[in-house]
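Before relying on records like the one below, remember that each one covers exactly one chain. Contacts with other chains, cofactors or solvent are not represented anywhere in the record.
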Amino acid sequence: AVVSTQSTGGYALRIILDTLQFPPSHKMYMFGISAIEEFKHKLKDYPQYCRYLKEKNPHYKDFPRGLLEYIEHGEESQEPPSAKFQQSQLQQSQIGVQPNQLGQPSSFQSMFGSQTSYNQSNQNLGMFGQSN
């Protein structure tokens, strides 16, 4: 078997394989694409799974281009070169507590306020067991 169904993870991977057998216009197929997108950075740990997707899935060529890149490199137990760039961009966007380049508050700040008010409110509530 390509993926052992003895574990929860193996079972989940098997379900994704099954959903990707549906036609690309089907909701189950879209679910499978969304699911595999969520763990595409882990595909390098499953080269046999990537090989199976590439060789046995009738809709493989319809997968999103970025996902194809992860599968093809995953087959060689590698991440694509674009992965480092994408991870760098993600880390920069997660930092978003600083004002953006236009001097506007980041979306995080506009939703949750500044770091100072956040720390003060949590200190007052004792939510984290620490005081700053």
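Residues 81-95 form the longest helix (15 residues).
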